[in-house]
């Protein structure tokens, strides 16, 4: 903490707060709180709230009315509310629940009641309300609030009151673009071709790369300044604890908030620093009014400031609170990156497989959520979602079924009509021909800001508007989402690689949801994850697999951990002498080596002697058939094991088996690999995961990861911090110290 | 059926096969030890019945098999997984020696085992390596067909080899007398 106060003195950023009055406990404090509330209410500004139908999809650029001036500048506040709520099923939990459908063309707009718009201003659209017409332009928000989200109009009005406004609902309004030719429509999405990605990026091509920062949820127990620390154990700079590393070439930065367990009246303050020589130097700060489920745009982080290595530090300035509020903040970022060396990009593939019993009327089908993996490379998302829907015929006929595909129940990716085949039931072969990439980008950026995932939400209805009775849904093994992912937020420069590339973080990942059999209520759904990280030359382990798998039984609140996994790795080199060791990743993030229990190991030694004696007795083949098999294999399979076996010259199979005797409470294993043929390479080497079988559920994902060459680059030392993560923060100097047997 | 009950060897043959079929539904937990113990126990009784089973051996084989089931409760008992085949072998030789004398009893057991191994090797060859594949698969949590197959083939071949050795020994005895 002393560093923090040093920093305060240096930058004088905090000087105003250090001088701010502190509340004293007791009746005086209560009186002051009441007084403060009274002042806030008295000062509350009257605003009109309109329910807007728009022909403009609102995302990162939000409506402004030129020449008005209120506490949010020229900006109008956008509040998302559901267009409708209908019964739906979340496939992976087999849970029926009302599912809201949001729409980027339907929202509430908050306009100051005394707004006097200038009609001479150049407008991109007009907002027609019962109270008049306003010219509107779209740009990044003046006041930083991109939008807030509410479950209903009533909740939206409450949220607005919490941020010191006095809202009045004034009915419906219309937002119409002047040049309607620019609008995105579902028709446009339907005709959009599936992006045909090149096999791999070409050197020196540039990309927008999306990532996230994660901060610890913070309990509010006092008024005044409260630090929101970054996740993990390392700060981005030596002189400022709890700062988050942003890195180079950040183009855009947004924050998402959540408030649970109470209400809090506070400002969220974002301090932006430049990192040089490991020390943070203050660049500036921005202050926002904290609101629940709200996303903020931090303009201080932009292509101009992003040329430096940046860090951010978050604080709350709490005026008052009630209940026991916990404030959660996450950040989403866009970086500019150049592909230089041929190993910076990996892949993410999300899959689903299996049949799901539904047996109810549903309008919404949720497939997901999948992890929104850090490092998504823009313009590379694909999907080949393929499913078969079986519905009850209506009066003996199969009506045409209309399916609207949306990502996260918010951004559409096309509407298609399917004709049913009458086979006792009505069978619809539903196939999504393409993903609408702009929708994916918007939702990915949104998801990272709120620490959320990505799901397909299918809005299904008959073309006459009625709701189908769905019997079952069968999902074919196909990519639900797939995209390239940048291995790090670290950049590469011509001729120089930053030191942190020595320990690259997650590079390629495969995520699977599956229902191995048609479930009944409270039955199990399988969730698996396989990642490949690649290490640089000089490390003993050149590739590290992590394999997770578990059945969850939502209705029973029970999980069964992975018992067997097979991963086939192919490379354009020999896999001879490839060697694998294994360890469980325990719930406390410690590693626990995978090895047979002590007495089982001793028994193996004794067995060698006994087998020799039995061999002398003349029983040579498998000792004595069934007897030797049962005892020998019983012993062998008692403990956990990880083995690597060559399938052919280029392919090795890594097999994990959970022993019948052991019962380690972990669903994840870490398997570092020694690959002797990689030594001395002067070009990147492509590793391909050709086959993954998790607990008998097999896929052929063709997932690629690239290993750095051994020679030819200078290394640049930087602060050893990493922010991108899955299952916790990992810094760059993690070492895989797993004993080899 | 009555004939079958009279033929102890056929009876235990059937028991081994039926018991091995339980592997299809056997849970992958500490109970695997119980399965192995059961299989070893029934297999020993089956082979001993071919030699000439006395009631006392049921208890002896039970005692030999029990530690296999109990190993998960006391880890040092896993050593018994290494020793149990030898123990079963010794008890079988002892059982045979009670009938045929020590040397002939030993030769009876070893001969039967040898012959059954030869039969299994022949079946393996004729089936294009199916049996080797089943053996190589070991105990797998998800692939279960191999254990009942091995059990069936093993007791079948042992049944034939044991009968054959019996005939041979009877023939030799007759010639010598």
Describe the structure.
The complex is a heterodimer of chains A (741) and B (177). With 741 residues, chain A is mainly beta. Chain A is 12% helix and 46% strand. Chain A has eight helices and 45 strands. In chain A, strand 39 and strand 40 form a beta hairpin. Residues 1-42, 518-522 and 726-736 of chain A have low confidence and may be disordered. By secondary structure, chain B is mainly α. Chain B has eight helices and no strands. In chain B, 41% of the residues are buried. Classes of the chains: A mainly beta (741), B mainly alpha (177). The interface between A and B is large, with 44 and 47 residues.
Assign the structural class of chain A, choosing from mainly alpha, mainly beta, alpha/beta, alpha+beta, or little secondary structure.
mainly beta
DSSP helical segment count of chain B: 8
Quaternary structure state of the chains depicted: heterodimer
Q: What is the terminal separation of chain A in angstroms?
A: 44 Å
Gyration radius from CA atoms of chain B, angstroms: 17 Å
Question: What percent of residues of chain A adopt helix (DSSP H or I)?
Answer: 10-25%
> Which residues of chain A form runs of ≥5 with pLDDT under 50?
1-42, 518-522, 726-736
Q: Please state the average pLDDT score of chain A.
A: 83
Shape of chain A: globular
The H/E string of chain B reads HHHHHHHH
What characteristic shape of chain B results from the CA principal axes? globular
- Tell me the fraction of residues in β-strands of chain B, as a range: under 5%
Low-confidence stretches of chain B: 1-5
Largest sheet of chain A: 17 strands, mixed
The percent of residues in helical segments of chain B reads over 70%
Total strand segments of chain A: 45
Radius of gyration of chain A: 29 Å
Compute the number of strand runs of chain B.
Answer: 0
């Amino acid at each position: 903490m002393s560093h923090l106060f040093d920093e305060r003195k240096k930058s004088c950023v905090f000087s105003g707060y250090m001088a701010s009055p502190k509340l004293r406990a007791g009746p005086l404090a209560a009186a002051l709180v009441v007084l403060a509330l009274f002042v806030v209410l008295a000062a509350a500004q009257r605003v009109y709230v309109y329910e807007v139908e728009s022909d403009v999809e609102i995302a990162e650029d939000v409506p402004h009315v030129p020449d008005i001036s209120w506490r949010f500048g020229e900006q109008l506040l956008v509040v998302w509310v559901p267009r409708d709520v209908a019964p739906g099923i979340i496939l992976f939990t087999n849970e029926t629940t009302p599912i809201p459908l949001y729409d980027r063309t339907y929202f509430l707009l908050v306009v100051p009641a005394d707004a006097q718009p200038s009609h001479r201003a150049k407008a991109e659209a007009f907002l027609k309300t019962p109270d008049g017409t306003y010219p509107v332009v779209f740009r990044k928000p003046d006041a930083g609030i991109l939008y807030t989200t509410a479950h209903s109009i009533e909740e939206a009005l409450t949220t607005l009151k919490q941020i010191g406004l006095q809202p009045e609902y004034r009915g419906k309004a219309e937002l119409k673009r002047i040049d309607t030719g620019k609008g995105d429509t579902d028709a446009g999405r339907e005709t959009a071709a599936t992006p045909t990605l090149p096999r791999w990026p070409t050197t020196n091509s540039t990309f927008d790369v999306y990532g996230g920062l994660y901060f610890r949820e913070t309990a509010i127990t006092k008024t005044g300044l409260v630090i929101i620390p970054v996740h993990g154990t390392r700060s981005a700079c030596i002189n400022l604890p709890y700062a988050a590393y942003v890195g180079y070439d950040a183009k855009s930065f947004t924050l998402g908030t959540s408030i649970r367990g109470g209400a809090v009246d506070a400002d969220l303050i974002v301090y932006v620093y430049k990192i040089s020589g490991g020390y943070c130097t203050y660049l500036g700060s921005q202050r926002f009014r904290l609101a629940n489920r709200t996303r903020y745009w931090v303009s201080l982080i932009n292509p101009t400031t992003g040329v430096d290595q940046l860090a951010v530090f978050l604080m709350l300035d709490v005026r008052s609170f009630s209940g026991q509020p916990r404030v959660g903040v996450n950040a989403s970022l866009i970086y500019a990156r150049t592909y230089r060396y041929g190993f910076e990009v990996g892949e993410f593939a999300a899959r689903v497989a299996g049949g799901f019993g539904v047996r109810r009327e549903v309008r919404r089908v949720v497939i997901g959520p999948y992890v929104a993996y850090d490092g998504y490379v823009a313009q590379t998302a694909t999907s080949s979602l393929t499913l078969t829907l079986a519905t009850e015929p209506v009066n003996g006929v199969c009506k045409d079924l209309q399916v609207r595909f949306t990502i996260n129940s918010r951004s559409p990716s096309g509407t298609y009509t399917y004709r049913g085949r009458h086979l006792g039931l009505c069978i619809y072969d539903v196939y999504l021909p393409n993903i609408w990439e702009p929708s994916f980008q918007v939702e990915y950026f949104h998801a990272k800001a709120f620490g959320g995932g990505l799901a397909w939400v299918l809005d299904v209805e008959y073309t006459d508007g009625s709701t189908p009775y769905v019997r079952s849904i069968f999902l074919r093994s196909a990519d639900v989402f797939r995209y390239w992912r940048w291995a790090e937020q670290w950049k590469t420069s011509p001729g120089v690689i930053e030191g942190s590339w020595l320990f690259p973080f997650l590079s390629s990942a495969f995520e699977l949801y599956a229902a191995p059999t048609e479930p009944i209520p409270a039955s199990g759904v399988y969730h698996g994850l396989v990642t490949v990280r690649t290490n640089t030359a000089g490390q003993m382990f050149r590739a590290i697999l992590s394999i997770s798998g578990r059945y969850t039984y939502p209705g029973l609140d029970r999980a069964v951990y992975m018992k067997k996994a097979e991963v086939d790795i192919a490379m354009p080199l020999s896999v001879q002498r490839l060697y694998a060791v294994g360890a469980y990743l325990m719930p406390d993030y410690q590693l626990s080596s995978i090895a047979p229990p002590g007495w089982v190991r001793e028994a193996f030694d004794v067995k060698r002697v006994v087998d020799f004696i039995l061999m002398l007795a003349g029983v040579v083949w498998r000792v004595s058939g069934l007897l030797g098999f049962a005892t020998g294999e019983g012993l062998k399979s008692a403990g956990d094991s990880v083995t690597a076996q060559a399938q052919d010259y280029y392919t090795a199979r890594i097999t994990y088996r959970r022993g019948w005797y052991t019962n380690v409470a972990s669903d994840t294993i870490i398997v570092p690999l020694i690959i002797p043929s990689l030594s001395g390479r002067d070009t990147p080497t492509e590793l391909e995961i050709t086959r993954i079988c998790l607990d008998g559920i097999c896929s052929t994902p063709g997932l690629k990861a690239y290993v750095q060459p051994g020679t030819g680059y200078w290394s640049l030392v930087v602060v050893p911090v990493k922010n991108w993560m899955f299952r916790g923060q990992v810094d760059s100097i993690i070492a895989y110290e797993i004993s080899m047997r | 059926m009555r004939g079958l009950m009279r033929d102890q060897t056929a009876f235990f043959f059937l028991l081994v096969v039926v018991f091995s079929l339980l592997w299809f539904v056997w849970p992958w937990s500490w109970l695997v030890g119980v399965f192995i113990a059961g299989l070893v126990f029934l297999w020993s009784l089956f082979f001993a019945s071919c030699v000439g089973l006395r009631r006392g051996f049921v208890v002896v084989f039970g005692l030999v098999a029990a530690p296999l089931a109990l190993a998960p409760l006391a880890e040092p008992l896993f050593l018994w997984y290494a020793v149990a085949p030898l123990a079963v072998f010794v008890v079988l030789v002892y059982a045979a020696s009670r009938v045929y004398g020590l040397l002939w009893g030993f030769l009876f057991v070893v001969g039967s085992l040898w012959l059954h191994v030869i039969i299994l090797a022949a079946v393996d060859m004729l089936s294009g390596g199916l049996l080797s594949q089943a053996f190589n698969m070991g105990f797998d949590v998800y692939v279960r067909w191999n254990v009942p197959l091995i059990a069936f083939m093993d007791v079948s071949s042992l049944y034939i080899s044991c009968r054959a050795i019996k005939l041979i020994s009877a023939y030799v005895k007759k010639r010598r007398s």
